[in-house]
Amino acid sequence: MNYNIYFSLTSLVYIVLLVIVFFSKKRLKTLENRIYQRLIVVSLTGVVLEISQIFTCMVMEKIPLLNAITSRLFLVNILLWISLLLVYTIVISFNKKYHKKLSLIVFLIFIICSVGFLVLPIQYYFEPTKSLYSYTYGMSVDLLKIVSISFLLISIACMLLHIKELLTKKYLPVLIYAVLFLISGIIQIIKPTLVLTQSVQIFTTFLMYFTIENPDLKMIAELELARNQAERANAAKTDFLSSMSHEIRTPLNAIVGFSQSLSEEDLPDSTKEKARDILMASDNLLEIVNGILDISKIEANKLEIVNTEYDLHKVFDELVLLTKARIGEKPIEFRTHLDESVPAVLYGDYVRLKQIILNLLTNAAKYTKEGFIDFKISTIQSGKACRLIIAVEDSGIGIKQDKIDKLFMKFERLDLEKNITIEGTGLGLAITKRLVELMKGKIVAQSVYGKGSKFTVAIDQKIVAEKAVATETQIDIPLNVSGKKVLLVDDNKLNLKVASMLLGKYGLAITQTLSGFEAIDKVLAGEKYDLILLDDMMPKMSGVETLKKLKGIEGFETPVVVLTANAISGMREKYLKDGFQDYLAKPIDKVELEKVIRKYLNS
Questions:
Q1: CA 523 to CA 550: how far, in whole Å?
Q2: ∠ CA 120-126-129 to the nearest 5 degrees?
């Protein structure tokens, strides 16, 4: 009995099924997939040629050319399959630069050998009396064996170069083929009429279907849809938080404004103290709102690092003043040190750097009841690069060793039962770590429970100037803005009242309007103003739209400053790009307000 025909027919069934399954679905157009597609086609062609060769032997005496063509094409097909397998092995073993050159060499060898199959002699063994026993031999077949073994050895060498990955799914088909090739060769030596070469190739091709990186595009489309939905949900969350920030900041503006006013008036000390408590609570609420917005923008990959030139000495002094205010009346020794070698001018995102350090100092002030807080900045300089080493150490409550890993997680507050009276959401350190990573830096936490903690941050900045440039001493010019006219535009009457109260202390002449339409009408009516403070988020006509119409009025040159509760990261830059001269956030900061007054109104 000729078992070759049964092996060939079984292989044909398997390869036809594989072709149907593989080509019925869309696939990624990767290089590995393209090679595999060719392997499938070559395998199908090969099994058809093998079956054809068995039957062309029956008419070999009548039509010898038909059998010669079929046999030689069959040899070409076998070598083509082995060549493709070698190219696949090269592709998964080497980078693009090398696998292109090596694959070209393999292709050239295949072309030369194919020509050899067509011209070299080939002999046939055929016994029709023994159920169509047949096989080929001769110089063509010998050439095929030599080249096939050589290609297989090269494949094995590629695998040995990646011995640690030998049993991974990419190399598994090649490894199995090498073993089966050896076994089928031994069988053919023992029983020359039993040819298993094509069946081994079909089996390897079938196995490769389950090992090659071959994702289903339908699944990818579903994942893409899920990702888009998640992004839309995240965007909706960010929009919601931005809206909530605006809505919270608007009443906070009134609370902070009136509280500041009360704390400065001639009132009993107990009343002033209550006003200061209101201010402190407002600051805490504002800090929570800002923290939630920051973590939301970080997660949405919308928080950008904006690099500018800055003076670290000035940033350091501001941080010291803010921390002293946080410590208040606590019996804490606040020790500070700034390395004398710190360059005069650095280049980086000082706003985010300041936020990182302030979060660490605020935490130290929160969780330290008595003792000390050490704040140090040292540097390591190399050429035009400066590595800032920022250390904040305290003698506070400390952190248990098994809890340190949770320090930088969102909404994580450790030992909550002991620290229930300390305000916060547990976002400060999570934001700090994300900001440090965005700035390509590192943060390390060390702590001894009950004795204190130390946080160390390393961030690289560029050096702009080594030494401070000598400048003329600036004289603090006194304010002289009495009688200057300011137009306030806001749809919220309470906000108008707060702004008018804060501006009234400077002796300014203030005009109030509740919409952009009213502001435009007043300018068109010929009224002149020295400054316009314009809210943005107003019904019917926004501040940005109002500004565009004002700038369209002939002869309009009044500076316009946006006064808005839309104070999330990046808004200042957006409003300046929209054409506003400056930016004030709500709640109104008295220091920032005075800067604007000095800049645009001081004579």
A1: 8
A2: 175
